[in-house]
Write a structure and sequence with these properties.
The protein has about 280 residues and is α/β, with parallel strands linked by helices. The protein has helices at about 30-45, 50-60, 70-80, 85-95, 105-110, 115-130, 145-155, 165-175, 195-200, 220-225, 240-255, 260-270, and strands at about 15-20, 25, 140, 155-160, 185, 210-215, 230-235. It has 2 domains: about 5-25 and about 145-270, 3-Layer(aba) Sandwich (Rossmann fold); about 30-130, no CATH class. Helix 10 links the parallel strand 6 (about 210-215) and strand 7.
Length: about 280
């Protein structure tokens, strides 16, 4: 496997790009159930905890906002809970306009005199990171069918992980699940956005019609569309079935006969996510 995107060289005509959290790796649910939501309720000391946690999971897992940046998700739920709060409105405005949404960017805003919501958001994000670090290996596994799909793809596809997560975390999870051995290159947040990574991979010599992005969230679809490549959805709650369906779809894709199936699956993808 190429350690760096710059080192990777095309060896096959086709390229399979695969997201990690919530797509190949069954890590998204547990992180929101055990880390993101509870830490949010703790930081804001919210009374109706069960209702708040249910709403957090709807926004981040089951609606068309699935997979959005953590600070955008935080701004959305805070705006719902406190619609007339000007400090929260300022935070929402920042999440909509900032070029970078990260703890580092939050720190800069706080140093510049941002209101207390920004500090609480930073406290929450750091607490989430600490909590994720306590999850056991048994709580971070690959979905059933992923390994088999990669085995089916390897003869005709180069395989690239395209993730917005931390490189070390992704590499550790994929290696532990014996998936890293099937991958040709691993791209993560250190390489840029998913759209940027696909763009850089295309520069290796792939025709756009020979690239398929596999993802579980609208952001994955958007990254594929921005680059003019095909998209295969892994459906939340139906991940096993999605991965079991992929090997046959890959063969249709190679023959240039997958377009109708991909259109139908895209419709299912949006129907499966609440509006």
């Amino acid at each position: 496997m190429a350690k760096e995107l710059s080192e990777f060289q095309k060896t096959k005509r086709f390229l399979l790009c695969v997201d990690s959290d919530g797509c190949a790796m069954d890590t998204m649910n547990i992180k929101h159930f055990r880390c993101f939501g509870p830490c949010f309720a703790d930081e804001w000391n919210l009374p109706d905890r069960e209702k708040v946690l249910r709403r957090w999971n709807e926004i981040n897992l089951y609606e068309r906002t699935r997979g959005i940046n953590r600070f955008k998700a935080l701004a959305l739920i805070l705006t719902e809970l406190y619609p007339d709060d000007e400090t929260i409105a300022a935070f929402l405005k920042w999440t909509n306009e900032a070029k970078e949404l990260s703890e580092r960017a939050l720190e800069r805003e706080i140093e510049g005199g941002a209101n207390e919501v920004f500090q609480k958001a930073l406290n929450w994000s750091r607490a989430v990171n600490r909590k994720i670090g306590t999850l056991s290996e048994n709580e971070k596994q690959a979905f059933a069918g992923v390994k088999e799909a990669f085995e089916a793809a390897k003869g005709q596809f180069d395989i690239a992980v395209v993730s917005s997560a931390n490189f070390d975390a992704v590499a550790e999870e994929w290696e532990r699940c014996h998936l890293l051995e099937d991958v040709d290159v691993l791209t993560t947040q250190r390489d840029g956005s998913k759209a940027h990574c696909i763009s850089e991979l295309l520069k290796k010599g792939y025709a756009k019609e020979c690239v398929l992005m596999v993802g579980d969230a609208p952001g994955d679809l958007a990254a594929a569309e921005e680059n003019g490549v095909a998209f295969y959805p892994v459906l939340v709650r139906f991940e096993k079935e999605s991965w079991e369906r992929l090997p046959a779809l890959l063969q249709s894709f190679v023959r240039g006969e997958a377009e109708e199936s991909l259109v139908a699956l895209r419709k299912k993808f949006f129907e499966n996510l609440q509006a």
